[in-house]
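User: Please fill in residues for this 92-position structure.
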């Protein structure tokens, strides 16, 4: 069964993770939260599952380098799924 991906706009992200907008955007620049996906002029979104994964890593006490490594992995998986190389959405 394929997992349905949900996009969140910035307002939804801020509500979901409960940190200030400026803090979140600064952490995105530093590689401590996943980068946005640009869907068009003035339209940027984040993938809810990626945010959940990073939230779990923070909750588990991962340090900044571990978070950055996780973010790079999430970005790589995004690109793999987009090119059809991923096999991580299998039947449960």
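Assistant: Residues filled in for all 92 positions:
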């Amino acid at each position: 069964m394929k997992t349905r991906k949900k996009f969140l706009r910035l307002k939804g992200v801020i509500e979901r993770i409960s940190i200030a907008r400026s803090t979140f955007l600064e952490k995105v620049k530093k590689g401590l939260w996943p980068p946005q996906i640009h869907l068009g002029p003035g339209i940027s979104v984040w993938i809810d599952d990626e945010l959940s994964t990073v939230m779990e890593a923070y909750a588990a006490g991962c340090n900044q380098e571990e978070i950055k490594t996780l973010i790079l992995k999430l970005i790589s998986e995004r690109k793999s799924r987009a090119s059809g190389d991923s096999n991580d959405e299998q039947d449960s």
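For context: The chain has one domain: 7-81.
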